[in-house]
Amino acid sequence: ELILKRLSGPHVPRFAASGSLGKVPYIAMEFVAGIGVAELTNRAPQPPDEVARIGAEIAKALAALHRQKVVHLDLKPENIILAERGAVLLDFGLARHAELPDLLGEESSVPMGTAAYMSPEQVLGERSDPASDIFALGCILYQLATGEEPFGRPATFAGMKRRLYHAPKPPRDIDKAIPRWLEAVIVRCMEVDRSRRYGEAAHVLSDLRNPDQVVVARKSAPSKERAWGAIRKFFRRTDEKSLIGKAASSAVRAGPPIVLAAVDLANGSDALAGEVRNETARVLAARPDSWLACVTVLKTEIVGKTPDVDESGRLVYLQRLVALKDWARPLHLPEDRISYHVLEAVSPADAILNYAEHNDVGHIVVGARSSSAIRRHLGSVSTKVVARALCSVSVVRLKAVEEERRLSP
User: Fold this and answer.
1) What does R_g of the chain's alpha carbons equal in angstroms?
2) Does domain 258-407 match CATH 3.40.50.620?
3) Sequence spans of domains, the chain
4) What is the pTM of this model?
5) If residue 392 lies in a helix (H) or strand (E), which one and from where to where?
6) Which of 18, 19, 38, 99 is the most exposed place for a label (fewest CB within 10 A)?
7) DSSP secondary structure string, 330-380?
8) Distance in angstroms (rounded) separating the CA atoms of residues 380 and 190
């Protein structure tokens, strides 16, 4: 939603409205009439001229998107509509914006995207390079031209990693009617080493509209040569990052500095949560360009199943998320400077620390409860965070008398 609101132009649907999570969550956007690219891939192979025309429309839309500092990261036929005004890109649920921190990417340890169209760098966990969208475009062009998906639809991580070592069959090996220039464009889009792909979507657009300018280097390598190349890559697999090359200078840079407010809402928003909010406001005032990540941890059990609903039947995760938004409301931050995250973990301290490290958090604000025998023995959440955090940490405590009054029956 945050990304869609920031986008403009004919190649994205217009955002209309959104609903509150605590009431009725929804996103309303423009209805886009046209032909889905999925309909065309289902009827593939398409004539080469039609493949070039469709590819040019998609490349034009990608160029406009990348100029707005956004990488789509889930480009596939189902997310593209060919309308009268050109290609319209849909579903920005996995997208990355240069001016927003990539908190989504760090909530999951597995590659995010659609396996059939995912770039090698995405498979290895990178989510910042527009070249990933160009790779996906190449996969779509391959499918339109040949009627086959270049990498199939692998369901395992090992299956997805095969694309680092095994190039798909050249399009002309499937259909000799495909022009050499079109094959050259498709193959260049799908290079494993992203430094060998097109530098920008606009360059793909130019080649698709001007076939005479495409350089056809040489004939495709024989299958035996491709096999030996795959074997050489496989035995270099300990350095997989070297296979994908370095990101281009146009890669999305890191977002604004992040302040993480760790809020304990297990018993509702109490006095300590209020003091954490006050301290968070002071930290944000000193860092006016920062982003606030509001985090609360839903503690799970080591043994047995953690209940999904509370005594009244409400989803615990959703209830905690609504409570987190209520907690942050007095800060009056614009929605493009704040996000909300409920982390499920056995150890709250580990969850906070992992999140902070993976997101390059610059400052943590955390509350500390009163001392107890158990906390002294096991170590409190705040103590662990202070000891192991790689950034500045503000620990908030209530005065001893106030804490004692709160805990007394």
Assistant:
1) 25
2) yes
3) 2-244, 258-407
4) 0.71
5) strand 392-397
6) 19
7) GG---GGGEEEEEEEES-HHHHHHHHHHHTT-SEEEEEEPPP-HHHHHH--
8) 50
